[in-house]
Amino acid sequence: MTDPWVALEPGTDPAERARMLRRAHETFTEAGTVQRPVRAVVAESWRRSARAGVGPDGTASVELTDGELRAYRAEHPLARVMPLVRELMGTFADDGRHLLAVCDAHGRLLWVEGHPATRRRAGRMNFVPGARWAETAVGTNAPGTAVAVDRPVQVFTAEHFVRRVQPWTCAAAPVHDPRTGRVLGAVDITGGDGLAHPHSLGFVQAVARAAESQLALLAPRRPTAGTAELTALGRDEALLVTGGRGIRLSRRHSEILVLLARRPEGLTGDELLCALYEDESVTPVTLRAELARLRRVLGPGLLASRPYRLTVPVESDAAVVERRLRAGAVTAAATAYAGPLLPGSRAPAVARLRARLADGLRTALIARRDPDLLADWAYAPWGEDDLDVWRALAAVRPTAAVRSRLAALESELAAPHVPYAAGGAAGPRRATWSQRPRP
């Protein structure tokens, strides 16, 4: 096949391919082995689905309804491009008796629109706004898999992991924030076998690119005029967006910006020195030289001294998560959390902030007892060794895969303490994602 993301090669008989895929799906669900003609992207997705504890007879759960759904959609960045998406996809969906759908980065469907009869059929499998269609929830499907692998993808009939979805064919493409490159969600077209064509995959990809272009043209929404935006979750080198330009910061400059963003009144040189350096032998001269380099990177007028402070308000993604947690908006906080704060940083103050934010969110998730939110954390790189979260997940979703992973973690916990290969700390478990040395 020339394009592994396209479901059918030219000239393939759809009915025969569907029969072969159903047999392969049965073999996988019974024996765990993948047979031809299953594509590699689908085989890998099936394996991820099985590891997440998804059953072939499962169904999607509806997480957001009524007012909560309306409020979440209104605040979501993709709401700003929905008129464009409808213009590009609406007629195609109506004419072909298909559905257009848009999901967020966690696979939650935000909009599902199209032919009324097709919507009613899709509603019987909970393909409705507010339902969770992440791979970790319902297995292989175009919108969920597109955000999982960050690629446009087609899913044809029995390539779907859950059986009740197998009469459908869909194609989806991720949409990215044009400033940060992060996945915001995906656009999807869902319908019958006729969508198993390269044109449908190219179509949703073109719509996704158009949506990204539209987002780039729209003025970013900010709390106040002149506010800069700092993205530091899940990345070692933060991105600062200010004055219409994006600045990728070095690791040390990222640490400084994170600390100054939290203290608009500023920090003295001594305070910054203690916050940034474990080594007490580092001199103020070293810090002043680093700040001089940062001032050149930022440009004139953004970094003041005596005390060191930023001259414009900075909205950070970490602050967004903190605010949502304080407000009790756990789902919204989890959605905004893209990973540990500057995970490779060893600056003492940054490490404390990173731990406080992660612990606050994971505590809220455990208390919330939402199996999908817990699964998102547990199967993320930073949660794969989080024993408390796995225990909470096992209590609300006791699948064989979850129980097996929990048993392995508890076995590690009971093992004799041995030194870590890196870092010098001792303990029975591997270092967490936020503690591992970064490249």
Automatic annotation (TrEMBL):
In terms of domain of life, where is this protein from? Bacteria
Q: Which UniProt keywords apply?
A: DNA-binding
A Pfam family that the UniProt record links to this protein: GAF
Ranges annotated as biased composition (Low complexity):
420-431
> Which segments carry the region annotation Disordered?
420-439
Q: Locate the OmpR/PhoB-type domain: which residues?
A: 244-310
Claim: Nucleotide-binding is one of the keywords in the record = no
Asked if the keyword tRNA processing belongs to this entry, the reply reads no
What InterPro entries does the record tag this protein with? GAF, GAF-like_dom_sf, OmpR/PhoB-type_DNA-bd
Q: What is this protein called?
A: GAF domain-containing protein
Q: What is the lineage of its organism?
A: Bacteria, Bacillati, Actinomycetota, Actinomycetes, Kitasatosporales
